[in-house]
Amino acid sequence: MTEKFTLLLVLLININYICFAQPQQNSKRADSLQVEFLTKELDLTSEESDKLWPVYNNYKNEIRNIRKEDQSDQIVLDEKVLNIRKKYKDDFKAVLGSDERVNKLFVAEKNFMEMLRKELIKRNIKREGT
Length: 130
Known about the structure:
By secondary structure, the protein is mainly α. It has one domain (29-129). Helix content is 92%, strand content 0%. Helix 1 (2-42) crosses helix 4 and helix 2 (46-69) packs antiparallel against helix 3. The longest helix has 41 residues, at 2-42. The model is unreliable at 4-12 and 14-21 (pLDDT under 50).
């Protein structure tokens, strides 16, 4: 009886691990692809890259935290995200040097998210078809 209980407990722990490990790996992979994409789109130098990513990660974490809070009012959520973008605009400009490059960062970020969304849809359709 004890052996069955122990085996069941081990299986439950492993199922939890498997279910929760995959999204974290996918998220880390998406983050690294985003860094690569934005670096290429902005044509960052190594010096700019060293300065930009800590600021960008703080910016991205603030946006993630806002999106986790309350998603019932989309207009309020969009306004909070916009305020975060405004807050970081000067920090990004200090690294990138111009408003044009900051705008290019925001456009490239949007383009990456759209590309990622389309890829996920394509994969889901492919998975459902097999």
